[in-house]
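Q: Given only this backbone (334 positions), what sequence would you predict?
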């Protein structure tokens, strides 16, 4: 990936004043940046939708959509929210600055624009965007790896997609903090990424595993945690990956945790994982109907394996909030 801070970026300038557009363009082009200009807010959004933009300089006072409106639109869309936006304004009141912050602005420039300040802020924001892009690329690699593992087994098609939706929806129902709900959405995809270290003859075996094979299989949560640990953005995902095969009575793996020692988010994903396994076809049995799957889970909860309260909440979610857990496209989930 090239360094956006090294003058290879495309910068969008939106201003209804031609002189202002030319001034900003001349300064930026003189530093080697590619500049795209538009005279209003709708034109700015059109450019963002149709080309790769690395930074946006928005005049606040434009006809039609104001700079505040355009900024809010950019920041509200998952595919554009990480594009840095600088509001260029002659307004200096605290109220206007607060309005810009609420719209999602990353920085402000006062008119008349000082060329050195413009370039310094541009370099700083583009450097930050380069880091963000690098992080997103790393996450994309992990998601692709996880989906490639899923694709090896025809019986697990769509499993990651469903778990991502189910787990996040259940987390929201339980009023978990936003960062934990995001972690559940991500963990739905990468929870079994550690199976990359499990040989295919074990992973796809259709009859019972030997003790030696089972020992290898039990290592996959640790391997998955190790694979994802370099990403700081996955810090809330790691406990889910490691502990989603634990059981409340301590007979799970890899650490034999009991009861509340198992992180709540891991227990949430665990319930959705079990349910999805029960209601989909497997080589050794046909899919169970919903009612039978829930009954099976309740029976196992009475044995001390799963969290009965979470089963109750998940069943209620399935019965009353089905539209909220419509399986999502993994590529757009993050």
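A: Predicted residues:
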């Amino acid at each position: 990936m090239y360094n956006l801070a090294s003058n290879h970026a495309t910068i969008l300038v939106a201003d209804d004043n031609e002189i202002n557009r030319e001034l900003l363009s001349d300064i930026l082009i003189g530093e080697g940046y590619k500049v795209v200009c538009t005279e209003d807010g709708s034109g700015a959004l059109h450019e963002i939708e149709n080309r790769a933009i690395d930074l946006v300089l928005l005049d606040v006072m434009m006809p039609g959509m104001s700079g505040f409106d355009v900024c809010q639109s950019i920041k509200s869309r998952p595919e554009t929210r990480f594009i840095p936006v600088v509001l260029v304004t002659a307004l200096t009141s605290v109220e206007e600055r607060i309005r810009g912050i609420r719209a999602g602005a990353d920085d402000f420039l006062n008119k008349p624009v000082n060329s050195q300040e413009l370039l310094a802020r541009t370099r700083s924001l583009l450097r930050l965007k380069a880091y963000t892009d690098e992080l997103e690329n790393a996450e994309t690699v992990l998601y692709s790896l996880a989906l490639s593992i899923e694709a090896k087994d025809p019986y697990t098609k769509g499993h990651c997609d469903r778990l991502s939706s189910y787990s996040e929806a259940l987390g929201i129902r339980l009023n978990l903090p936003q960062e934990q709900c995001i972690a559940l959405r991500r963990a739905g995809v990468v929870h079994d990424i550690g199976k990359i270290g499990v040989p295919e003859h074990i992973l796809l075996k259709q009859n019972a595993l030997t003790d030696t094979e089972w020992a290898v299989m039990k290592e996959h949560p640790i391997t998955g945690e190790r694979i994802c640990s370099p990403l700081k953005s996955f810090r809330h995902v790691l406990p889910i990956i490691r502990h989603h095969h634990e059981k409340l009575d301590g007979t799970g793996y890899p650490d034999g945790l009991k009861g509340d020692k198992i992180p709540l988010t891991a227990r949430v994903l665990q319930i959705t994982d079990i349910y999805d396994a029960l209601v989909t076809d497997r080589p050794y049995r046909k899919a169970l109907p919903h009612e039978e799957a829930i009954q099976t889970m309740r029976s196992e909860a009475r044995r001390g394996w799963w969290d009965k309260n979470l089963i109750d909440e998940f069943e209620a979610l399935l019965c009353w909030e089905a539209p909220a857990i419509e399986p999502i496209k993994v590529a757009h989930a993050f």
